[in-house]
Amino acid sequence: MKEILVVGGAGYIGSFVVRALLDAGYKITVLDNLSSGHKEAIPSKVTLIEADLADEKVVRDVAKGKDAAMLFSGLINVGESVKEPWRYWKENVVKMILFLEVASEIKNIIFSSSAATYGVPQGELFETHELKPVNPYGETKLAIEKYLEHLTIAKSINAVALRYFNAAGGRADLGEDHKPETHLIPNVIKAGLEGRPVTIFGSDYETKDGTCVRDYIHVEDLADAHLRALTACLSAKIGFRPYNVGTGKGVSNLEVLKATEDVLNRKIECIMGERRAGDPPVLVANPNLIKKELSWEPKFTNIKDIISSAALWHKNHPNGYLA
Ligand code: UDP
Asked: Which pLDDT score is estimated for 317?
Protein backbone atom coordinates (compact mmCIF):
# COMPACT_ATOMS: atom_id res chain seq x y z
CA MET A 1 0.00 0.00 0.00
CA LYS A 2 1.40 3.41 -0.99
CA GLU A 3 1.87 5.87 1.86
CA ILE A 4 1.09 9.53 1.41
CA LEU A 5 1.99 12.43 3.69
CA VAL A 6 -0.66 15.15 3.49
CA VAL A 7 0.65 18.44 4.86
CA GLY A 8 -2.28 20.68 5.74
CA GLY A 9 -4.78 17.82 5.40
CA ALA A 10 -7.12 19.30 8.03
CA GLY A 11 -7.89 22.32 5.85
CA TYR A 12 -10.69 22.83 3.35
CA ILE A 13 -9.15 21.33 0.22
CA GLY A 14 -6.88 18.91 2.09
CA SER A 15 -9.81 17.32 3.90
CA PHE A 16 -11.57 16.53 0.60
CA VAL A 17 -8.36 15.10 -0.86
CA VAL A 18 -7.86 12.94 2.24
CA ARG A 19 -11.32 11.40 1.62
CA ALA A 20 -10.49 10.76 -2.04
CA LEU A 21 -7.12 9.18 -1.13
CA LEU A 22 -8.78 6.91 1.44
CA ASP A 23 -11.40 5.82 -1.09
CA ALA A 24 -8.60 5.02 -3.54
CA GLY A 25 -6.88 2.79 -0.97
CA TYR A 26 -3.86 4.89 0.06
CA LYS A 27 -2.41 4.93 3.58
CA ILE A 28 -2.41 8.50 4.83
CA THR A 29 -0.66 10.54 7.47
CA VAL A 30 -1.78 14.13 7.93
CA LEU A 31 0.68 16.70 9.25
CA ASP A 32 -1.17 19.84 10.33
CA ASN A 33 -0.51 22.45 13.01
CA LEU A 34 -4.27 23.14 13.15
CA SER A 35 -3.65 26.89 12.91
CA SER A 36 -6.50 27.07 10.43
CA GLY A 37 -7.40 23.40 9.90
CA HIS A 38 -9.91 21.40 11.92
CA LYS A 39 -9.34 18.12 13.72
CA GLU A 40 -13.00 17.29 13.05
CA ALA A 41 -12.32 17.34 9.30
CA ILE A 42 -9.98 14.32 9.57
CA PRO A 43 -11.54 10.85 9.41
CA SER A 44 -10.78 8.69 12.45
CA LYS A 45 -8.77 6.09 10.51
CA VAL A 46 -6.24 8.71 9.39
CA THR A 47 -3.19 9.42 11.57
CA LEU A 48 -3.00 13.10 12.46
CA ILE A 49 0.35 14.49 13.56
CA GLU A 50 -0.27 17.87 15.11
CA ALA A 51 2.89 19.81 14.29
CA ASP A 52 4.27 22.55 12.10
CA LEU A 53 5.84 21.77 8.74
CA ALA A 54 9.00 23.50 10.00
CA ASP A 55 9.29 21.14 12.97
CA GLU A 56 12.45 19.37 11.85
CA LYS A 57 12.33 16.50 14.30
CA VAL A 58 8.71 15.60 13.55
CA VAL A 59 9.09 16.01 9.78
CA ARG A 60 12.21 13.81 9.67
CA ASP A 61 10.22 11.11 11.38
CA VAL A 62 6.96 11.35 9.41
CA ALA A 63 8.74 11.56 6.05
CA LYS A 64 10.20 8.06 6.51
CA GLY A 65 8.78 5.55 4.06
CA LYS A 66 6.36 7.96 2.37
CA ASP A 67 5.89 7.53 -1.37
CA ALA A 68 4.57 11.04 -1.93
CA ALA A 69 3.76 14.29 -0.16
CA MET A 70 0.83 16.59 -0.89
CA LEU A 71 1.44 20.15 0.26
CA PHE A 72 -1.70 22.10 1.15
CA SER A 73 -0.42 24.11 4.10
CA GLY A 74 0.14 27.85 3.98
CA LEU A 75 -1.62 31.20 4.00
CA ILE A 76 -4.17 31.79 1.27
CA ASN A 77 -5.63 35.30 1.29
CA VAL A 78 -4.71 37.68 -1.48
CA GLY A 79 -5.81 40.86 0.35
CA GLU A 80 -4.07 39.86 3.60
CA SER A 81 -0.87 39.03 1.70
CA VAL A 82 -0.68 42.63 0.46
CA LYS A 83 -1.00 43.94 4.03
CA GLU A 84 1.28 41.41 5.76
CA PRO A 85 3.69 40.04 3.15
CA TRP A 86 6.26 38.93 5.76
CA ARG A 87 3.86 36.29 7.10
CA TYR A 88 3.31 34.94 3.57
CA TRP A 89 7.02 34.69 2.78
CA LYS A 90 7.72 32.99 6.11
CA GLU A 91 4.85 30.49 6.10
CA ASN A 92 4.60 29.75 2.39
CA VAL A 93 8.25 29.95 1.34
CA VAL A 94 10.73 29.78 4.23
CA LYS A 95 8.94 26.98 6.06
CA MET A 96 8.13 25.09 2.87
CA ILE A 97 11.77 25.09 1.78
CA LEU A 98 12.85 23.84 5.21
CA PHE A 99 10.23 21.12 4.99
CA LEU A 100 11.36 20.01 1.54
CA GLU A 101 14.96 19.80 2.74
CA VAL A 102 14.13 17.72 5.81
CA ALA A 103 11.65 15.52 3.91
CA SER A 104 14.03 15.03 0.99
CA GLU A 105 13.55 11.27 0.98
CA ILE A 106 10.05 11.83 -0.47
CA LYS A 107 10.45 11.66 -4.23
CA ASN A 108 6.99 12.69 -5.40
CA ILE A 109 5.49 16.06 -4.52
CA ILE A 110 2.06 17.47 -5.33
CA PHE A 111 2.02 21.19 -4.55
CA SER A 112 -1.02 23.44 -4.10
CA SER A 113 -0.18 26.32 -6.39
CA SER A 114 -2.50 29.02 -7.63
CA ALA A 115 -3.80 30.94 -10.61
CA ALA A 116 -2.44 33.94 -8.70
CA THR A 117 0.98 33.02 -10.16
CA TYR A 118 -0.17 34.47 -13.51
CA GLY A 119 -0.87 38.02 -12.35
CA VAL A 120 -3.01 39.92 -14.85
CA PRO A 121 -3.26 37.52 -17.79
CA GLN A 122 -3.03 38.69 -21.38
CA GLY A 123 -5.04 36.38 -23.62
CA GLU A 124 -5.70 32.73 -22.95
CA LEU A 125 -4.34 31.17 -19.81
CA PHE A 126 -2.28 28.19 -20.83
CA GLU A 127 0.39 26.92 -18.42
CA THR A 128 3.04 28.49 -20.67
CA HIS A 129 1.64 32.00 -20.05
CA GLU A 130 4.06 34.44 -18.43
CA LEU A 131 4.10 34.17 -14.62
CA LYS A 132 3.95 37.68 -13.18
CA PRO A 133 2.03 37.73 -9.89
CA VAL A 134 0.43 40.98 -8.75
CA ASN A 135 0.25 40.13 -5.04
CA PRO A 136 2.59 38.58 -2.44
CA TYR A 137 0.43 35.46 -2.18
CA GLY A 138 0.99 34.69 -5.87
CA GLU A 139 4.70 35.51 -5.55
CA THR A 140 5.12 32.97 -2.75
CA LYS A 141 3.36 30.24 -4.77
CA LEU A 142 5.55 31.02 -7.75
CA ALA A 143 8.69 30.91 -5.58
CA ILE A 144 7.91 27.36 -4.46
CA GLU A 145 7.02 26.28 -8.01
CA LYS A 146 10.44 27.50 -9.16
CA TYR A 147 12.16 25.80 -6.23
CA LEU A 148 10.39 22.51 -7.00
CA GLU A 149 11.36 22.78 -10.64
CA HIS A 150 14.99 23.16 -9.60
CA LEU A 151 14.70 20.18 -7.24
CA THR A 152 13.27 17.96 -9.97
CA ILE A 153 16.35 18.68 -12.06
CA ALA A 154 18.96 18.49 -9.29
CA LYS A 155 17.52 15.50 -7.44
CA SER A 156 15.61 13.70 -10.16
CA ILE A 157 12.31 13.81 -8.28
CA ASN A 158 8.76 14.39 -9.57
CA ALA A 159 6.77 17.49 -8.69
CA VAL A 160 3.32 18.55 -9.89
CA ALA A 161 2.14 22.10 -9.24
CA LEU A 162 -1.64 22.27 -9.41
CA ARG A 163 -2.57 25.85 -10.16
CA TYR A 164 -5.95 26.09 -8.47
CA PHE A 165 -8.43 28.58 -9.77
CA ASN A 166 -11.16 29.37 -7.23
CA ALA A 167 -11.87 26.33 -5.05
CA ALA A 168 -15.50 26.23 -3.98
CA GLY A 169 -18.33 23.90 -3.00
CA GLY A 170 -18.79 21.32 -0.32
CA ARG A 171 -21.02 18.51 0.87
CA ALA A 172 -23.33 18.05 3.85
CA ASP A 173 -20.57 16.97 6.27
CA LEU A 174 -17.50 18.76 4.89
CA GLY A 175 -16.86 22.29 3.75
CA GLU A 176 -15.18 25.66 3.98
CA ASP A 177 -14.56 27.01 7.50
CA HIS A 178 -12.06 29.86 7.53
CA LYS A 179 -11.99 32.32 10.40
CA PRO A 180 -12.33 35.03 9.33
CA GLU A 181 -13.92 33.96 6.02
CA THR A 182 -12.63 36.08 3.16
CA HIS A 183 -13.79 34.11 0.11
CA LEU A 184 -16.67 35.23 -2.03
CA ILE A 185 -18.93 32.16 -2.23
CA PRO A 186 -19.05 31.35 1.51
CA ASN A 187 -19.47 35.05 2.30
CA VAL A 188 -22.41 35.45 -0.08
CA ILE A 189 -24.06 32.24 1.15
CA LYS A 190 -23.66 33.21 4.81
CA ALA A 191 -24.98 36.71 4.12
CA GLY A 192 -28.02 35.11 2.46
CA LEU A 193 -28.61 32.63 5.27
CA GLU A 194 -28.14 35.23 8.01
CA GLY A 195 -30.13 37.95 6.24
CA ARG A 196 -27.35 40.55 6.15
CA PRO A 197 -25.62 42.36 3.25
CA VAL A 198 -22.44 41.25 1.49
CA THR A 199 -19.80 43.61 0.11
CA ILE A 200 -18.57 43.20 -3.47
CA PHE A 201 -15.07 44.59 -3.87
CA GLY A 202 -14.98 46.80 -6.95
CA SER A 203 -17.55 47.47 -9.67
CA ASP A 204 -15.40 49.46 -12.12
CA TYR A 205 -13.29 46.68 -13.63
CA GLU A 206 -13.21 46.25 -17.39
CA THR A 207 -15.31 43.11 -17.29
CA LYS A 208 -18.80 42.12 -18.45
CA ASP A 209 -20.53 43.78 -15.48
CA GLY A 210 -17.70 45.74 -13.85
CA THR A 211 -16.97 43.11 -11.16
CA CYS A 212 -14.07 40.63 -11.10
CA VAL A 213 -14.39 37.35 -12.97
CA ARG A 214 -13.19 34.04 -11.55
CA ASP A 215 -13.24 30.36 -12.51
CA TYR A 216 -14.88 28.35 -9.72
CA ILE A 217 -13.76 24.77 -9.39
CA HIS A 218 -15.54 22.30 -7.15
CA VAL A 219 -13.38 20.96 -4.36
CA GLU A 220 -14.26 17.36 -5.31
CA ASP A 221 -13.04 17.99 -8.87
CA LEU A 222 -9.88 19.46 -7.35
CA ALA A 223 -9.50 16.33 -5.23
CA ASP A 224 -9.78 14.19 -8.35
CA ALA A 225 -7.02 16.26 -10.00
CA HIS A 226 -4.77 15.47 -7.01
CA LEU A 227 -5.41 11.77 -7.33
CA ARG A 228 -4.59 11.81 -11.01
CA ALA A 229 -1.43 13.85 -10.43
CA LEU A 230 -0.39 11.35 -7.78
CA THR A 231 -0.94 8.39 -10.09
CA ALA A 232 1.14 10.12 -12.78
CA CYS A 233 3.99 10.72 -10.31
CA LEU A 234 3.93 7.18 -8.95
CA SER A 235 3.93 5.57 -12.39
CA ALA A 236 6.65 7.45 -14.30
CA LYS A 237 9.44 9.95 -14.16
CA ILE A 238 7.69 13.18 -15.11
CA GLY A 239 9.96 15.87 -13.61
CA PHE A 240 8.17 19.16 -12.96
CA ARG A 241 4.64 19.57 -14.37
CA PRO A 242 2.36 22.56 -13.73
CA TYR A 243 -1.37 22.19 -14.47
CA ASN A 244 -4.25 24.64 -14.43
CA VAL A 245 -7.18 23.26 -12.47
CA GLY A 246 -10.28 25.18 -13.45
CA THR A 247 -13.40 24.65 -15.55
CA GLY A 248 -12.56 27.25 -18.20
CA LYS A 249 -15.75 29.20 -17.40
CA GLY A 250 -15.61 32.76 -16.07
CA VAL A 251 -18.21 33.86 -13.52
CA SER A 252 -18.39 37.46 -12.27
CA ASN A 253 -18.84 38.42 -8.63
CA LEU A 254 -22.33 39.73 -9.45
CA GLU A 255 -23.17 36.46 -11.20
CA VAL A 256 -22.14 34.60 -8.03
CA LEU A 257 -24.50 36.85 -6.07
CA LYS A 258 -27.38 36.23 -8.50
CA ALA A 259 -26.78 32.47 -8.61
CA THR A 260 -26.72 32.35 -4.78
CA GLU A 261 -30.01 34.25 -4.64
CA ASP A 262 -31.49 31.63 -6.97
CA VAL A 263 -30.08 28.72 -4.97
CA LEU A 264 -31.28 30.10 -1.61
CA ASN A 265 -34.45 31.45 -3.16
CA ARG A 266 -34.08 34.85 -1.46
CA LYS A 267 -32.77 38.34 -2.17
CA ILE A 268 -29.31 39.18 -0.81
CA GLU A 269 -28.44 42.82 -0.23
CA CYS A 270 -25.19 43.85 -1.84
CA ILE A 271 -22.92 46.77 -0.96
CA MET A 272 -20.62 47.92 -3.74
CA GLY A 273 -17.27 48.48 -2.01
CA GLU A 274 -13.81 49.62 -3.08
CA ARG A 275 -11.52 47.37 -5.08
CA ARG A 276 -9.51 44.92 -2.96
CA ALA A 277 -5.74 45.39 -3.35
CA GLY A 278 -4.01 42.66 -5.36
CA ASP A 279 -7.12 41.46 -7.27
CA PRO A 280 -6.60 40.66 -10.97
CA PRO A 281 -9.79 41.55 -12.91
CA VAL A 282 -10.14 38.19 -14.67
CA LEU A 283 -8.71 34.72 -13.90
CA VAL A 284 -10.11 31.92 -16.06
CA ALA A 285 -8.23 28.70 -16.81
CA ASN A 286 -7.55 26.97 -20.03
CA PRO A 287 -7.65 23.45 -18.54
CA ASN A 288 -6.80 21.54 -21.73
CA LEU A 289 -3.41 20.29 -20.54
CA ILE A 290 -4.67 18.47 -17.44
CA LYS A 291 -7.59 17.10 -19.47
CA LYS A 292 -5.21 15.75 -22.09
CA GLU A 293 -2.36 14.49 -19.93
CA LEU A 294 -4.23 13.29 -16.83
CA SER A 295 -7.64 12.58 -18.43
CA TRP A 296 -9.20 14.90 -15.85
CA GLU A 297 -12.66 16.31 -16.46
CA PRO A 298 -14.61 18.48 -14.00
CA LYS A 299 -18.00 17.10 -12.97
CA PHE A 300 -19.30 20.43 -11.68
CA THR A 301 -19.47 22.99 -14.48
CA ASN A 302 -22.54 24.92 -13.40
CA ILE A 303 -22.02 27.63 -10.78
CA LYS A 304 -25.43 26.97 -9.23
CA ASP A 305 -24.52 23.32 -8.56
CA ILE A 306 -21.26 24.41 -6.95
CA ILE A 307 -23.04 26.99 -4.78
CA SER A 308 -25.82 24.52 -3.80
CA SER A 309 -23.26 22.00 -2.60
CA ALA A 310 -21.56 24.71 -0.51
CA ALA A 311 -24.92 25.89 0.83
CA LEU A 312 -25.63 22.37 2.07
CA TRP A 313 -22.57 22.59 4.30
CA HIS A 314 -23.28 26.14 5.54
CA LYS A 315 -26.93 25.36 6.32
CA ASN A 316 -25.91 22.32 8.38
CA HIS A 317 -22.94 24.06 10.03
CA PRO A 318 -23.71 27.74 10.65
CA ASN A 319 -20.66 27.94 12.94
CA GLY A 320 -18.46 25.71 10.82
CA TYR A 321 -16.90 22.75 12.62
CA LEU A 322 -17.92 24.23 15.99
CA ALA A 323 -21.57 23.56 15.24
N1 UDP B 1 -14.83 39.21 -3.06
C2 UDP B 1 -15.84 40.11 -2.76
N3 UDP B 1 -16.40 40.06 -1.53
C4 UDP B 1 -16.00 39.18 -0.57
C5 UDP B 1 -14.97 38.27 -0.89
C6 UDP B 1 -14.40 38.33 -2.14
O7 UDP B 1 -16.24 40.92 -3.60
O8 UDP B 1 -16.55 39.18 0.56
C9 UDP B 1 -14.25 39.24 -4.41
C10 UDP B 1 -12.75 39.41 -4.49
O11 UDP B 1 -12.38 40.76 -4.39
C12 UDP B 1 -12.49 38.79 -5.86
C13 UDP B 1 -13.49 37.64 -5.93
O14 UDP B 1 -14.51 37.98 -5.00
O15 UDP B 1 -12.81 39.72 -6.87
C16 UDP B 1 -12.91 36.29 -5.52
O17 UDP B 1 -12.23 36.47 -4.30
P18 UDP B 1 -11.87 35.27 -3.33
O19 UDP B 1 -11.24 35.88 -2.10
O20 UDP B 1 -13.07 34.41 -3.13
O21 UDP B 1 -10.81 34.42 -4.14
P22 UDP B 1 -9.42 34.84 -4.86
O23 UDP B 1 -9.78 35.07 -6.30
O24 UDP B 1 -8.89 36.05 -4.19
O25 UDP B 1 -8.56 33.65 -4.66
From this structure: 95
Confidence band (pLDDT; 50, 70, 90) for 323?
Answer: low
Query: Same structural domain for residues 71 and 36?
Result: yes
> Does residue 256's CB lie within 6 angstroms of at least one atom of ligand 1?
no
Q: What is the per-residue pLDDT across 200-232, written as a single tens digit (0 to 9) for each? A: 999 999 999 999 999 999 999 999 999 999 999
Which residue CA neighbors atom 2 of ligand 1 most closely? 200
DSSP category for residue 45:
T
Domain count, the chain: 2
Residues 80 and 196 both lie in one domain: no
Q: Are residues 174 and 234 in the same domain?
A: no
Paired sense of beta strands 47-50 and 213-214, if any: unpaired
Ligand 1 in reach of 174 Cβ (< 6 A):
no
Domain final position from 228, 245, 262: 245
Give the range of the structural domain holding residue 260, as residue numbers without chain letter: 169-214+248-322
Nearest to 260 by CA among 315, 297, 205: 315
137 is catalytic: yes
Residue bearing the CA closest to ligand 1, atom 18: 183
**Chain segment 258-305, per-residue pLDDT in tens:** 999 999 999 999 999 999 998 999 999 999 999 999 999 999 999 999
Residue with the smallest CA separation from ligand 1 atom 4 is: 184
Q: Is 38 in the pocket of ligand 1 (CB under 6 A)?
A: no
Domain harbouring 231, CATH code? 3.40.50.720
Counting beta carbons within 10 angstroms of the beta carbon of residue 211, is it exposed (0 to 12), middle (13 to 18) or buried (19 or more)?
buried
